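A reminder before we start the practical. When you read a complex entry, don't treat the lines as separate problems. The point of joint prediction is that each chain is placed relative to the others, so the output describes one connected object in space. Small molecules and nucleic acid strands, if listed, are placed in the same frame. In the example below there are three entries. Take a minute to note the order of the lines before looking further.
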Amino acid sequence: MVIATPERPAVKPAAPSRFSEASGPMLDARIPGGPLTEKWDLRKFENKLVAPANRRRFKIIVVGTGLAGASAAASLGEQGYDVQAFCIHDSPRRAHSIAAQGGINAAKNYKNDGDSIYRLFYDTIKGGDYRAREGNVYRLAQVSVDILDQCVAQGVPFAREYGGLIDNRSFGGAQVERTFYARGQTGQQLLLGAYQAMMRQVQAGSVTIVPRREMLDLVVVDGHARGIIARNLVTGEIERHTANAVLLCTGGYGTVFYLSTNAVNSNVTGAWRAHKRGAYMANPCYTQIHPTCIPVSGDHQSKLTLMSESLRNNGRIWVPKNKGDRRPPNSIPEAERDYYLERKYPSFGNLVPRDVASRNAKEVCDDGRGAGDSGLSVYLDFRDDITRLGRDVIEARYGNLFEMYNRITGEDPYAQPMRIYPAVHYTMGGLWVDYHLQSSVPGLFVLGEANFSDHGSNRLGASALMQGLADGYFIAPYTVPDYIASTRFSAAPVNHPAFDEAETRVDDQLKHLLGVKGKTTPREFHRRLGHLMWDYVGMARTEAGLQKVLSEIPALREEFWRDVSVPGTNDYMNKSLEYAGRVADYLEFAEVMALDALERAESCGGHFREESQTPEGEALRDDENFAHVAAWEFTGVGTEPVLHREKLDFENVHPSQRSYK
Amino acid sequence: MVAQSRPSLKGSHSAANSMKIRLKVWRQKGPDAEGTLVDYTLNDVSPDMSFLEMLDVLNESLIRSGKDPVHFDSDCREGICGSCGMMINGKAHGPLAGTTTCQLHMRTFQSGDEIVVEPWRAQAFPVVRDLVIDRSAFDRIIVAGGFISVNTGAAPDANAVLVPKQNADMAMDAAACIACGACVAQCKNASAALFVGAKVSHLALLPQGNPERSRRAIRMVQQMDAEGFGSCSNEGECEAVCPKGISISNIARMNREFTKASFGGTH
Amino acid sequence: MAGQGNPVPSGRMTPYTPKPFPTVDGAVQHRAFIWSSIGTKIILAITGIGLALFLPVHLAGNLLLFAGAESFNRYAHKLISIPVLVPIVEIGLLALFIIHSVKALMNFLANRKARPTRYAARQWAGGRSHKTWASTTMIISGLSLGAFVPIHLIQMKYGPYFETKVDGETVRDVYKVVVETFANPLNVAFYLFCMAVVGMHLYHGFASAFSSLGVSHPRYSPVILWVGRLFGAVIGLGFFVLPIYAAMVG
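Here is the predicted structure of the whole assembly.
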């Protein structure tokens, strides 16, 4: 799908970085040497082992029970470690992985259409716009086949053909059929598979589920992650939990935008508090915006709903040609409609990649040609295909989606075009981890969307589920034991001063939040932060905009701590208090996110800097200056973080410019 | 240009179609506290709001005046996580069939309506706070046997075992359960038969789940009983309120599985 | 859980402690099949079907009332003269009746316990539900029948003894018992009420028993549901006409 152009367009010289001096030595990702195809095998052999009889003595804390967390807890429990799995929900099965619709990639080549581990690796590196590590991505492609086997054995009811074999399809513009699916609920079924595997270990006595707990601090003893401080969300009790290793599987930070397709409880708190204890935050500016979401209907809106991208196969995207044309869509004549994607990208048309579709929607809406009362949507029109194929065919393909759309908007997509708008969907950035998924704090491992590792600057469709499960089933279970086997643990009992200190910090913050007794709700602050981030750190970013938002975030943060209203007390269930803490973290996190976007003066994948684009308006990378991972080290709230870099080497795939003309 | 890319803070609904809603909401401070229905009136409800967004609006005004907001669980707000759920005018998840509370929109109601909102009620689902309940009984039923025993890495090739399409489809129908608990809430006996039947069926319909089907059926049913759920009266109220339309034929299958397992199954 | 938190501050509400998770061998509290919720329902189904099957036989015989005193008395005499079978059937029915009653009562109490707090507002689900007045009042209709059956037996089987001659043989004049019983309008009213209750109990119970036994089929389950309802209606109506006829004759 990507046509490489032999000569790279001229690269605009990057703005001199303020951080070029401060960066220090390049980070070492501990990627094994040797040929690409043998790196992981080699490392698995090099890894130290823990004897089965000894495993029970080692305690592992897993925070978050989505695909990554549940699969890691299950697998480490099976090996015999003493695992505690924490989740903020009433049940571990409610993690937001459950909402993933599309499918999971696996390089099985069941369709005999030319797929291979190498091709999945290649597509992922290229899809990530050459900002991911080759070693990690190749490993991901390698284990993708094992993941599928595992899930099938667990009873995940994948779609089948009449012969009884597993069905699969092409997804997200991939040229091979490598996506496996369970109706439109693949995430749910994969999560339930992992959840059930974990619950089996609960029965076996090796995993303990600790539900309705929120991790509020990481406890670091002698430089190693040795436990967490958690709040019991029912009783308000602050708890200390010790461990030999801590696995953060806390998902992405999409809700920094307030509105996103993420769940309303998705948050950055676990990752951010670990960041404040020394874990580097990598590439936080990489966010993925999904083009086909149901538009915002008003200020009351609490989340955005994603509609499958497959709709673009049969729907045509358009807006009125004339600015401010507010006529109902069916009374806008053909000649006054602008099918802008078909016009600008004749060969890909409505099927251009997510980022291109999203940016173009924003462009036409900013131009005043958006649809709907808000002017913040574009039409996705099925009229032509309903005429051509018949309503039955469209209904068979998208009946459930049309029904969902109708339920949410009250509009009938068979009779009038759908309205869609882009929404934040996935965050490729996250805590920095090495090849072992270990963060810059030894003993702290980060899995799934919470880490930054495998998607580069843009994630391919059906790859998120693959990565979460790869980390949990097949990577952490090899690298965490290696860490345990090669570490001499000092004593870290719950009465260690580091625990006292962490608990005091948590307690102070909770008291502080309750003590402000201001007039503005946490949600109001969250919404205002979200608007700032969407406007200036959203689909298209500029230096001026980023400078502006960097000056406004501290002011908003200051206002938050002066005027937030958190009713109630800290000794029973208090959802306002939980929420206020998460918003407080976002008000800090947003700053490093904007700073990262400012520092990366190039466009790549999900990060689009208006200053850096090709004459056609495509993202223009600057490989000379930015073929690296930007990993930020916390130095204090409101003080500038330290930038560390990790160089990205491409020995197998050679970076090229994307083009969709 | 940037400032245009989001809606105005005022929201898009006009005053003309805003609704007045009178709520009676169950308030209960903690598991052992006394609870009561409390009246609230909202004058500016948009028909485009979801039911939970309407409660958000109520909560915003409560928080602004320093009062405790109405607590309820919700997460994905797209009908798949199973967190949300409340009795709305005496019906689990409210008046629309096949709909979770988060997907129920206020346009379903009329301006001036009185809406009674209560938590799920069951011995096995104690109230934690307001509309928040403890559904860990479901987790314990899964722990008792709602899984297929396969260790990571021990799986054969995904296509090594053939599964007839019809069975895979039926298994998927059952596996679509989101464990929201509406079945228990609506059932006059607070029975969990639909939830347990769905999991027993999902795994019994697949060849992978066959080896431990007897043990699974026995253990899950025993745990279901131990949790204090009622028995099934075959009224089908559960199926009618299930947001995923899980069929009560799964209860019949569970009964068969359990009976077979009790008389001669190996477990 | 390894939570080692602050000392519990005063004024805190009762700590919230969910039940422990079941383990490999323990924790799952083992009940024998007959005491499990499903076992209970299956026993109710089997005994219920057994009792229900007796009703058409009983009704068919009783309809001979229309054929006149002689036919009715002849039938009644022949029936009780069958050796062995009648006592066995009687004991069997009594056993079914007792098991069904006891199990139903226990089941009802367990179900009450499963929902200790009632809803302030309550609505039926509608749609695909087949909840009916009959299904919601099974315990009431059941208890009514539990009271009816002994009264019925006392009034009829163990009621006044009249003699008559049929085919030259002296037999009990059951016809007269029936007619005299229904000469009292209170008895007629009581029987009519109870026959409506039987119909209602069967209207839900018949199909429900099949569901409990695990019978389920996309095509045949709705058929069973309607056959059950029809069965309830026919039995109810059939028995309904007898007291009226008897009253009219008398």
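Discuss with your neighbour: Strands of chain B lie at 19-28, 35-45, 87-88, 91-92, 114-118, 127-129, 132-133. What might explain this?
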